[in-house]
Structure formats: C-alpha cells, structure tokens
C-alpha cells in the first residue's frame, strides 16, 4: 500500500487551478499521471511516515508545475523533438573545463565555440560556475547560490544564452548539480547560523558530538589529509553539522521533504536555463543512516529516481549523469531509471592500471564482467577528470585473475608517483591517509602517461612512446560504447601545472596540478605536426571524425570485450548488424602479435586509422602501444561466441 491511492483526483484539481491561465496543463498532467504511481511510491518510501505526507507530495508537484510553466517555448520545443537515444549516438563527444581557467569567463567560452567544433565536441561540461566562497570553495563544489553565476564569470542570463548558442552549434551544455551539500555561505546556511530552525533542518545538525561520534565509527574520510572527519562545529549556534567533504561544505538533509522540494526547485531552474545534462555530484552520500557507512543507501537511490521522474515531467530533454566513485557494483545501480549516463571510473582506472603494469588481463576481465549496462543508457568514458585517480577496481575481480588488489594499489600509487624504477609517470599523491596507507593520484593525462619525463629527458623514443600511450587511451574511450569525455587541454598534451603550490588556498589540494589554465602556445601549435601538441591534436581530431562517421561506435550498439586473447592487448569488438570493428591496442612497451582468425570471418580487415589492409591469415603485429580499429571487409556473423573464443585461446 502506498500513498498515492485517492490523492490523484485532489492533486489533479489543485494543479488545474495552477494552470488556469495557461493552456498547457494537458501535457504536464499527462506526463505526471504516467509517472505518478512510481513517483508517489518513491516519495512515500522517503517521507511516508509523516502525517503531512499528502501535503508534501502536493508541494513537490506544485513546484514541478510552476517550473513547467516557466520553461521557455524554445526548451519545450526541444523536449518535444528529442529522440530518447540522442545521447547514445556516435556523434556524441564531450569536453570538460573550468570556465575561468580555460577561457576567462562565459564570453570567452562562447568565443571558443569554433574551436569546440574544430575538435568535434557535442557535449560541454562547464565545471561549477556558481557563486561560491572567494578563497576556499573546492573548485566551485561549495555552492553559495544555485541561481547566480560567479560575477567574474558572467551572469545567469549569459549562461542561458550560452546554452542556447551552444545548442545552435550542436553542443549540449552540461552542468553540475551539487546537491549533497551547499557552501557555508549559502543563504540556507546563513539562516541556519542565525538560529532559524527551519533552515537548520535543511542540514544534518546535532546539538553535541555524541551522535556524530557514533556515526563516525562507520564513515570513511573523503579528504583525510585536508579535511579529516565528517562533522564540523558551528560556534554561532553551538551545533555540529555534517560535512562529508570540507568543513565549509555542509551536507543537506534529504530526510526533510522541504529540503527535497527546495533542491528540486533549484534543479528545475537550471534545467530551464537550457542545461541538457545535470551531473549529480557525490550521489552516493545523499542519505545517512546510523550504523551504516552512509553511502549508496536505498533512499539515495529513491531521491535520484524521484528527481529524475520530475525532470522527465518538466524538462524531458534533460538527463542525469551519475558521479558515483564507489565500488563498481554500486556504480551500476545508479544507471537506468535514476541516471541515463554515468562516469565509467572503472574503465578509467583500469586503463592506467594496464599502462603501468603492461598487462591487460584485469581490465579485460573486469570489462567482460561489468561493461554491459541497460539499453537507453550510456557510460561516459574518460581518461581523467578534474578529480584524482583512486584505484576503484574490485578486489574480487583482482582475485579472479590472481592479483592481490591491496598490494596492486600500493604498486600503482608508487608507480604513478614515480617511485618505481623505470616508471614513466609524473604524478602527485592525493589524499594520503596515514591511518590506512591509502592514497590517490593527481596529474594530467600527458604527465601521467610519460610526456613530462620524456620532454625533460629529451629522449625522442620515450617521447614517441608517451604520445602513443596517450593516443591509445584516447582511441579506446572513443570506440568503447559510451560518450567519450576529454578534459580540455589534454588534446594538446598539456603537462602538470605546479603553480598551485604557491597558492595558499590550493597548496593542500594536489588536484590543482591537473587543472592548468589553457596554454595558448600549445593551442597555436595544434596544426603543426612537427610539434607534440600538433601530433596529439591532429591524431585525436582524426579519430573523433572517424568515430562520428561510423554509427557502429554509438552507445546503442554493443561492445564485446574479448578476454583471454592476449595478456598485453586491450581488445573489444563493436558490432552493428553484420558489420564489425575490432579495436586492439597494445598496452605494453614490447611488440605483440595476435591471431584474430578465431573470430574474424572476412578474408580481409582494414585499419580505419592507417587504412592498411590485413589478410585474415596474417598475424596482427602491434608495435608498443600501437592501436588499430579493424573494420572487417566482409560480413560477419551477428555475434561472437565468446565461450568458443576463450576455449580456443586457452587451448
Ligand atoms: C565531487 C567532485 C569533487 C568535489 C566533491 C565534493 O566528487 O567531483 O571535485 O570535491 O564532489 O563536492
């Protein structure tokens, strides 16, 4: 028994009243009615124990109705014209940047549209650009006002115009929905500090530290080095507030339906500015329950699914992207009715793992096991983000291929901080936890892949290898099913920027090493193939164009990972009907030779990257870090029998 029985007629009448001067009630009410049973079931699971549940439900639907009315005709038209699979197309290619570091301000971003088009981008994630505290703001993830752009960057009206301008150029705007917390300067927090109980209830506040201490027994620390513990004392009101991240980021209290409703309002406001993808920041942490680790609780899932239903009712052109950097089993649970797309941190970390070890069996094994996600969803495949790299592969996957996950993480941390003899990487430690010995890694793609060291040494062979490593990773995220996402600057081989160490507000946060300002010199070199920037940019631009012209690379077509073929090669097949493309990349510094006869039927394949033709009988020889995208020239069977393949290859 849920909640909703009997409430619909009353709610319907109330909503009609709201729409009385607006002709569009039918579309809204139809969308709501279609989703009403599930929506009220979810909200009942969160707030059903309250005597005023029906009233809360009505308030939430009222917020949605007002946002629907406020939505512009241009965006209503977008809602109507969107194909549900728009984000799965091979044409989708993403870029991410900080507005200030990359282009100064929103006008600067607008001026870069021709560059985004030159590269082939159709998805642009602008890192948090909202009003935030001046000095410490966690790269913008401490939001003081979801409806105000930081004045140095522009205005909300400019942002809405930019969204529309980007769309006119085929680019979807992606913004963060930082909904787990606000900054301690947000108006809600200021009111809570003034003692207003209704705003104190927007946060998780405690009169003393007795309960916080009980919670702490099961919590991890996200930033153990800079922000140990999960609670902060607020002297003005003599209370403790929950702060999972930094002490100036106050966790919101979704057990309070008024907060849910307030955040819904902020979210719909952003959707109505023309944002097409909302990146749900820190999604695992939305609900807390004593005695648990307060991550990935069922209520966190209910919150996101309910919000997604409400977005589908008001602004269906908008989709959610999950940011869940947790165990791979848990990540998968956010994909589907909750979020249409999700970061793929597992592929990301395993690409780096494979590069460091020179072995691909953990990557292949994990991908065979975990790459498939529901239809109508997509991974966002990336090499690195603005955040650190934490080795979030599953220990059980490691054990299945004979690796000790814990020891392997120590090796990887040592490798990427250059402590392993022969390591090519120039990374920095992030978030070292002396209690657990745990740590993560910071660094740009180029610096982690060896370019920084190679340039310092002046060794042309090492330089060549570094470029190949970068391109192999880029080629994989461009061809494995999903939306490839590039951190802008990586396309030019931008190295680590150590200047953050002189900035008192950043020196404790090594993630700033891989958030460099745009480098105009590299940009100017991008068409010169004798430069490193030109080599990377040129090759990437070509690969992007190839991806976009082959629908087989869309996320709506299957990706089949082929395990047990070769221990040093990343290998998967894209299939569309009887067409196949085999993507193979050698992740070792030695030449490898593969026999693809066991699953290629065609007499010939053609490498799309070099246009070289390969005969079926000839072994495929891959130079160090070389990659091929082999298109079979004839028809293949509709699918590959992987059992037969693994038997053949192990036999
Ligand atoms: C996410 C962001 C990260 C931020 C954290 C807290 O993980 O990606 O940069 O520090 O959330 O908002």
Short structural description:
The chain has three domains: 87-173 and 271-552, TIM Barrel (Alpha-Beta Barrel); 181-251, Oligo-1,6-glucosidase, domain 2 (Alpha-Beta Complex), CATH 3.90.400; 559-650, Sandwich (Immunoglobulin-like), CATH 2.60.40. The termini are far apart. It is built from 24 helices and 25 strands.
Characteristic terms for this protein:
24 helices, 651 residues, Oligo-1,6-glucosidase, domain 2, six-stranded antiparallel sheet, alpha/beta, disordered C terminus, Immunoglobulin-like, TIM Barrel, single chain
Please count the helical segments. Answer: 24
Distance between the termini: 56 Å
Question: Major sheet, described briefly?
Answer: 8 strands, parallel, barrel
Q: Classify the fold: give the CATH topology of the largest domain.
A: TIM Barrel
Largest sheet strand order: 1-2-5-11-12-13-14-17
Pfam family, one: Malt_amylase_C
InterPro entries: Amylosucrase, GH, GH13_cat_dom, Glyco_hydro_b, Malt_amylase-like_C, O16G_dom_2
Domain Glycosyl hydrolase family 13 catalytic: 98-526
Protein name: Amylosucrase
Give the arrangement of secondary structure elements.
Blueprint (H helix, E strand, L loop, with lengths): L6 H12 L6 H23 L5 H18 L2 H9 L12 E4 L1 H5 L2 H6 L1 H7 L3 E4 L3 E2 L13 E5 L6 H13 L3 E6 L3 E3 L3 H7 L3 H4 L4 E2 L3 H7 L14 E4 L4 E4 L6 E3 L5 H15 L5 E4 L17 H17 L4 E4 L5 H5 L8 E3 L1 H13 L3 H10 L7 E5 L12 H6 L4 H12 L11 E3 L9 E3 L2 H4 L2 H7 L2 H20 L3 E5 L32 H5 L7 H17 L10 E3 L7 E8 L2 E8 L5 E3 L9 E4 L5 E3 L4 E3 L4 E6 L9 H9 L1
Parallel strand pairs: 1-2, 1-17, 2-5, 5-11, 11-12, 12-13, 13-14, 14-17
Antiparallel strand pairs: 3-4, 6-10, 7-9, 8-9, 15-16, 18-19, 19-20, 20-25, 21-24, 22-23, 22-25
Helix pairs in contact: 1-2, 1-3, 2-3, 2-13, 3-12, 3-13, 12-13, 15-16, 20-21, 21-23
The protein binds alpha-D-glucopyranose.
Pfam families: Alpha-amylase, Malt_amylase_C
GO biological process, one term: carbohydrate metabolic process
Organism: Dictyobacter kobayashii
């Amino acid at each position: 028994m849920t909640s909703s029985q009997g409430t619909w007629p009353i709610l319907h009448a109330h909503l009609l009243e709201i729409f009385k001067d607006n002709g569009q009630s039918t579309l809204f009410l139809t969308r709501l009615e279609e989703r009403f049973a599930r929506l009220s079931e979810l909200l009942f699971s969160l707030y059903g124990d309250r005597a005023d549940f029906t009233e809360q439900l009505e308030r939430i639907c009222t917020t949605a109705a007002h946002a629907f009315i406020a939505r512009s005709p241009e965006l209503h038209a977008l809602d109507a014209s969107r194909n549900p699979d728009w984000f799965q197309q091979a044409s989708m290619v993403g870029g991410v940047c900080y507005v200030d570091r990359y282009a100064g301000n929103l006008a600067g971003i607008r001026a870069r549209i021709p560059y985004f088009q030159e590269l082939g981008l159709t998805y642009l994630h602008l890192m948090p650009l909202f009003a935030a505290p001046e000095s410490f703001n966690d790269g913008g993830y401490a939001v003081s006002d979801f409806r105000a752009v930081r004045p140095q960057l522009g205005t909300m009206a400019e942002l809405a115009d930019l969204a529309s301008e980007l769309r006119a150029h085929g680019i979807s705007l992606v913004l963060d929905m930082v909904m787990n917390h606000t900054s301690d300067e947000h108006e809600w927090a200021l009111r809570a500090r003034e003692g207003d109980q209704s705003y104190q209830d927007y946060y998780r506040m405690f009169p003393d530290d007795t309960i916080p201490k009980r919670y702490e027994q099961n919590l991890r620390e996200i930033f153990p080095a800079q922000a140990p513990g999960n609670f902060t004392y607020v002297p003005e009101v003599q209370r403790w507030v929950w702060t999972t991240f930094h002490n100036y980021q106050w966790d919101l209290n979704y057990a309070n339906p008024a907060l849910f409703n307030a955040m819904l309002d902020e979210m719909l406001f952003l959707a109505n500015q023309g944002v097409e993808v909302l990146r749900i920041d820190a999604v695992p942490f939305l609900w807390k329950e004593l005695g648990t680790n307060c991550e990935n609780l069922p209520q966190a899932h209910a919150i996101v699914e309910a919000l997604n239903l409400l977005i589908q009712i008001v602004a269906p052109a908008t989709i959610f992207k999950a940011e869940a950097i947790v165990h791979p089993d848990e990540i998968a649970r956010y994909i589907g009715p909750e979020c249409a797309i999700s970061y793929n941190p597992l592929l990301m970390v395993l690409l780096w793992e494979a590069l460091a070890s020179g072995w691909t069996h953990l990557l292949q094994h994990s991908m065979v096991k975990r790459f498939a996600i529901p239809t109508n969803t997509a991974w966002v495949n990336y090499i690195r983000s603005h955040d650190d790299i934490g080795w979030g592969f599953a220990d059980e996957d490691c054990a299945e291929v004979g690796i000790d996950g814990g020891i392997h993480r120590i090796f990887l941390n040592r490798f990427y901080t250059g402590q392993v003899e022969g390591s090519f990487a120039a990374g920095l430690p992030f978030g070292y936890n002396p209690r657990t010995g745990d740590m993560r890694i910071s660094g740009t793609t180029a610096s982690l892949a060896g370019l920084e060291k190679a340039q310092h040494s002046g060794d042309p062979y090492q330089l060549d290898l570094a470029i190949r490593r970068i391109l192999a990773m880029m080629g994989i995220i461009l061809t494995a099913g999903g939306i490839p996402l590039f951190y802008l600057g990586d396309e030019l081989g931008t190295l680590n920027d150590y200047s953050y160490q002189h900035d008192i507000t950043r020196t404790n946060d090594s993630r700033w090493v891989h958030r460099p300002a745009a480098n105009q010199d590299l940009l100017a070199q991008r068409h010169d193939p004798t430069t490193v920037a030109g080599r990377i940019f040129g090759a990437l631009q070509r690969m992007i164009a190839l991806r976009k012209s082959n629908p087989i690379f869309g996320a709506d077509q299957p990706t089949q990972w082929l395990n047990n073929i070769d221990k040093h090669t990343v290998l998967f097949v894209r299939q569309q009907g009887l067409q196949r493309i085999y993507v193979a990349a050698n992740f070792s510094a030695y030449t490898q030779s593969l026999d693809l006869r066991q699953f290629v039927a065609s007499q010939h394949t053609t490498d799309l990257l070099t246009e070289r033709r390969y005969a079926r009988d000839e072994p495929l020889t891959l130079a160090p870090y070389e990659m091929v995208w082999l298109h079979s020239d004839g028809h293949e069977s509709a699918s590959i029998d992987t059992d037969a393949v693994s038997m053949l290859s192990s036999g």
